[in-house]
Structure to design on (1108 residues):
């Protein structure tokens, strides 16, 4: 794990693969951190310079409560992060909330992207809106309770992973690790409180203007996010591909890493 | 229009239903959250954790930015636990003034001022205070603060929050009570454990005590035994199952020592124990196999679980009685030893003062222990220098002890007592010399025996000396009497010369008598032992004594025990009596009322006799001849010498000093001894002891001593190393019509025998000769001519060897000098028996 200081806060990331290769940056979603990419990374490390980041407030990064954890703020920090590492061209992959961050980053910094990949991503208004009465939204309420109770949290994981045999004790421990401490729980609550679909709603039109090659992956067994998001994105983004698989749930990288890698690499090559 | 109206109405109704649905959902969710919080509370490890987590849960689930628990005391609210959702800090330990009583749920709008000086990190828009009162937290309230529009539903949340906080307070209270309960329970448990352990320890100790006891311990419930320790089962030699089926009476013989039925007596003692608490008695018990043994029984009443039982403790007395018996036996033996010991123990201090003396001292010194203790032992020494010498040796010894020191102490009756002393020094604990301890042994008897031994030695030496001289004298006398006989034969009618020669012959025979007495003393005289009735002989002698004793002397026969038979020489015994009475008679010359008492008694060897004659068999029968007079007595000094030859206190013309010497030798020839008791001025008693024995022997009886028998030219071989005797003998035999050849020793005589053995009818030979003695010569002769008669003539009356005894028909032993009549008759006797 490596760390970089951004505006006074330490940001953690994991970098592997080929330093001379094209850079691919992976952004996780809510309730997870860089570990969630671990099964798929090995397929890319042979050719790519792979970076998996821990968003601020998640994983091993600092968890300040006095900064915004909105997807817009995360997108801006991602840009700062890449600049700090002098990464000017990259393949950007986002999962869940990370997909929202990737959408904003693509609209704002499209020239930097070689490709854009959105995996079971949030989008449009199909996810919680402010104010945080959003806690009344079932998924968020579940997340909050999950943050407080391992039993509840396991339920989220069980719903988010299609292949039950992949839900190991080690995997659950990786999910639960940041929430063991009060700081992690507070950061999680701050994260949730900052969720605002307005950031995405305002740029629907800009999505339609994107020309960057985009790959949209959808695990069709995801109970949290509707398939409409993937379908609308595919419809709105001109140069996009939609890959769907029934044997994956919300955490597609865990359920079908090989399938994901195969289609992603094929997609990238086809673009080249 | 109506359609629009209907639509608006529908929308309102839908909105209303949605709101209602949302609230219902939220109510349902609140119930779920309550259960969730309840679960958190129950899983919390501590009250602090319980409070902390619950506040966090409320904050997160109900989206309340600040939640705190405040203790209210004296108008000050102190935050004991808090949760701030928007900062990584809390408000713990902060406080603010709260003067108003919070007795019910209270809302504060814009509470910033009220909550000052709390550092909230935000501008509070509303505060909710929910009071509590609990054992754990005391009085206080839960504080909920909102900071923005989120508090729109704050009042709506109030009821839910109240339920949550009630749950928390009750749980804390329960936890506190539970803690108290647990503490009490733990204490109680600890006490119970301690008591249980104590009881267990006590029980183990008791069990160990009972199981390990040597004595039998058992419990009886008036019907049967209900408990017994291993010693009891071992004592009665049965299993537990067998034992528990028995009653006390069945463990006893039918009758006790006093012939009372055990069954009845058992009931009496048990009743006594129940009523009086205990009973103690001796008892006879019976093992399962039937052996009866004595024991000591202690019964005591015990109450167990409300039931009255009798505990019996039984001690087997078998071993104790055995040991007691052995102890008594040992004590008796010790007492016997102490009482009969001939020695005595004593202890003196440094100055010689007697501090302890054993009772046996009285037997030795006549003084009792009480007479001696406290007195200085120096006073009892006849020769004080002996004690000084003893102490000198004691101090000079390397180990502080000396042994065998002989001292002479004074007896209470005045005479001296010789003691052998074994003494050692005694010291106190500090090592200082504090006195001496000794054991003294009576040496009186030893001294007496020592004296007797020296006396016997002296007498033996005298005997040897006298015997040697007497032998030579005998030879000379034999020569003289033989020569005188020849002279008388040749003097014919020369009466004057004949008378002189007769006088000479008389003197020679008197000298011969003296020699005989000397030989008796030296036990080398002729002794002819034969079985005789001493009682009869004594009576015969007594008759003669009555006739020969002067009339002024009263001769008393004090008693004669009948049937006393001995092997003895009657003539010697007669001489013993005659001499003793003659001595008594001489001792009475100056006595006013002279008396002589004689007696012959049977007695047995006792301890006193054995001291002096240890070779005798205990209780062997003896003949005791006593001759007593009331004459002048003999001094102790003279008593030591009276049996020596030629010792006499009489005038020269009255005594030779050989009488008692002869008696001494004669008595010893009979394996006896003679004692003398005498007190000057009071009289003297002689006691002669001779063993009563039964042994057959053949005595030699001679014919008429006054006849001289002549031969008929038989050839006689005369053998003697003394030429004069040999010549006289040859002359004598020739005068008796015998042919004579002569040899000077055994060897030469044997050569003559070889040459004339067919002619020789008899041999006359000396016994003691150089080269070859008479006995050896005779043996060689008899090898060739077994029935050849031989007469031995010797200066000693030596006993013949066994081979000669067997040939007694052909043998006669004569003593030098022998009368011519004796010789001629002996020759005739042997030749006659040989001819027949």
């Amino acid at each position: 794990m490596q760390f970089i200081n951004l505006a006074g806060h330490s940001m953690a990331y994991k970098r592997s693969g080929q330093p001379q290769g094209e850079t691919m940056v992976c952004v996780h979603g809510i309730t997870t951190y860089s570990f969630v990419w671990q099964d798929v990374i090995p397929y890319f490390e042979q050719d790519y310079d792979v970076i998996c980041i821990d968003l601020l407030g998640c994983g091993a990064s600092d968890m300040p409560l006095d900064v915004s954890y909105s997807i817009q703020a995360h997108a801006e920090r991602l840009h700062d992060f890449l600049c700090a590492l002098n990464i000017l061209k990259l393949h950007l992959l986002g999962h869940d909330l990370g997909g929202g961050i990737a959408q904003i980053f693509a609209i704002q910094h499209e020239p930097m992207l070689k490709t854009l990949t959105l995996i079971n991503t949030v989008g449009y208004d199909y996810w919680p809106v402010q104010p945080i009465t959003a806690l009344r939204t079932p998924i968020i309420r579940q997340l909050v309770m999950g943050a407080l109770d391992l039993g509840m949290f396991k339920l989220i994981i069980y719903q988010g992973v299609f292949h039950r045999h992949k839900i190991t004790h080690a995997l659950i421990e990786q999910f639960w690790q940041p929430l063991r401490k009060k700081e992690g729980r507070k950061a999680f609550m701050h994260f949730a409180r900052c969720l605002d679909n307005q950031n995405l709603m305002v740029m629907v039109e800009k999505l339609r203007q994107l020309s960057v090659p985009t790959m949209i992956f959808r695990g069709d067994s995801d109970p949290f996010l509707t398939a409409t998001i993937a379908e609308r994105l595919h419809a709105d983004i001109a140069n996009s591909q939609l890959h769907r698989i029934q044997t994956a749930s919300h955490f597609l990288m865990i359920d079908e890493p090989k399938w994901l890698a195969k289609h992603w690499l094929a997609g990238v090559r086809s673009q080249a | 229009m109506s359609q629009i109206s209907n639509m608006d109405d529908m929308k309102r109704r839908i909105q209303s239903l949605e709101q209602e649905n949302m609230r219902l959902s939220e109510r349902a969710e609140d119930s779920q959250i309550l259960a969730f919080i309840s679960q958190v509370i129950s899983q919390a490890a501590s009250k602090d954790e319980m409070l902390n987590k619950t506040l966090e849960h409320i904050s997160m689930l109900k989206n309340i930015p600040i939640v705190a628990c405040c203790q209210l005391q004296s108008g000050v609210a102190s935050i004991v636990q808090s949760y701030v959702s928007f900062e990584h800090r809390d408000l713990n330990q902060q406080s603010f003034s709260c003067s108003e009583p919070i007795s019910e749920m209270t809302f504060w709008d814009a509470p910033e001022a009220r909550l000052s000086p709390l550092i909230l990190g935000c501008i509070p828009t509303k505060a909710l205070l929910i009071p509590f009162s609990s054992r754990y937290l005391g009085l206080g309230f839960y504080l909920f603060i909102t900071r923005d529009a989120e508090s729109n539903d704050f009042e709506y949340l109030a009821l839910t929050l109240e339920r949550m906080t009630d749950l928390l307070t009750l749980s804390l209270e329960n936890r506190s009570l539970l803690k108290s309960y647990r503490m009490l329970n733990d204490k109680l448990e600890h006490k119970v454990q301690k008591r249980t352990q104590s009881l267990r320890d006590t029980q183990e100790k008791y069990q160990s005590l009972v199981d390990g006891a040597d004595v039998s311990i058992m419990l009886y419930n008036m019907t049967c035994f209900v408990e017994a320790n291993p010693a009891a089962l071992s004592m009665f030699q049965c299993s537990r199952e067998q034992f528990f089926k028995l009653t006390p009476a069945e463990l006893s013989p039918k009758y006790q020592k006093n012939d009372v039925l055990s069954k009845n007596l058992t009931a009496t003692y048990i009743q006594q124990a129940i009523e009086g608490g205990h009973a103690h008695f001796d008892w006879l018990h019976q093992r399962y196999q039937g052996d009866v043994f004595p024991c000591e029984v202690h019964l005591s009443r015990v109450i167990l679980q409300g039931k009255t039982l009798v505990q019996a403790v039984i001690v087997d007395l078998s071993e104790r009685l055995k040991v007691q018996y052995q102890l008594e036996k040992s004590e008796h033996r010790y007492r016997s030893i102490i009482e009969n010991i001939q020695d005595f123990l004593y202890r003196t201090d440094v100055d010689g003062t007697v501090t302890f003396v054993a009772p046996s001292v009285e037997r030795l010194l006549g003084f009792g222990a009480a007479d001696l203790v406290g007195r200085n032992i120096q006073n009892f020494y006849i020769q004080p220098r002996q004690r000084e010498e003893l102490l000198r040796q004691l101090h000079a010894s390397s180990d502080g002890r000396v042994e065998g020191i002989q001292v002479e102490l004074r007896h209470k009756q005045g005479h001296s007592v010789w003691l052998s002393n074994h003494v050692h020094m005694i010291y106190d604990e500090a090592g200082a010399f504090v006195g001496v301890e000794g054991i003294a042994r009576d040496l009186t008897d030893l001294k007496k025996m020592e004296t007797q031994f020296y006396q016997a030695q002296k007498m033996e030496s005298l005997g040897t000396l006298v015997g040697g001289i007497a032998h030579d004298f005998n030879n000379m006398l034999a020569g003289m009497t033989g020569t005188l006989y020849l002279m008388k034969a040749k003097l014919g009618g020369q009466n004057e010369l004949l008378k002189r020669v007769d006088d000479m012959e008389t003197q020679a025979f008197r000298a011969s008598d003296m020699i005989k007495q000397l030989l008796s003393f030296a036990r080398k005289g002729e002794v002819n032992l034969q079985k005789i009735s001493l009682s009869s002989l004594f009576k015969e002698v007594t008759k003669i004594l009555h006739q020969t004793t002067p009339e002024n002397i009263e001769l008393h026969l004090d008693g004669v025990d009948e049937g006393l038979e001995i092997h003895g020489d009657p003539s010697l015994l007669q001489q013993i009596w005659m001499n003793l009475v003659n001595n008594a008679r001489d001792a009475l010359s100056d006595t006013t009322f002279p008396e002589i008492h004689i007696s012959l008694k049977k007695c047995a060897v006792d301890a006193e006799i054995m001291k002096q004659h240890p070779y005798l068999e205990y209780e062997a029968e003896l003949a005791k001849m006593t001759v007593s007079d009331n004459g002048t007595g003999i001094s102790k000094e003279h008593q030591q010498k009276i049996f020596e030859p030629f010792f006499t206190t009489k005038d020269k013309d009255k005594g030779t000093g050989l009488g008692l010497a002869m008696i001494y030798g004669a008595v010893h020839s009979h394996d006896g001894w003679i004692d003398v008791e005498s007190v000057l001025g009071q009289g003297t008693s002689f006691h002669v002891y001779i063993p009563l024995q039964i042994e057959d022997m053949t005595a030699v009886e001679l014919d008429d001593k006054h006849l001289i028998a002549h031969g008929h030219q038989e050839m006689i071989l005369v053998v003697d190393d003394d030429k004069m005797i040999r010549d006289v003998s040859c002359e004598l035999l020739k005068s008796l019509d015998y042919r004579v050849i002569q040899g000077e020793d055994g060897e030469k005589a044997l050569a003559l025998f070889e040459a004339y053995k067919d002619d020789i009818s008899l041999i006359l030979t000396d016994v003691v000769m150089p080269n070859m003695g008479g006995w050896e010569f005779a043996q060689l002769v008899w090898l060739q001519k077994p029935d050849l008669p031989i007469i031995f003539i010797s200066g000693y009356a030596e006993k013949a060897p066994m081979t000669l005894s067997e040939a007694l028909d052909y043998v006669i032993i004569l003593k030098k000098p022998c009368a011519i009549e004796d010789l001629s008759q002996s020759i005739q006797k042997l030749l006659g028996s040989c001819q027949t």
Observations:
- The first strand of chain B starts at residue 66 and ends at 73.
- The longest helix of chain B spans residues 154-212.
- Chain B touches chain A at residues 22, 25-26, 29, 36, 40, 56-57, 60-61, 63, 85-88, 149-150 (CB under 8 Å).
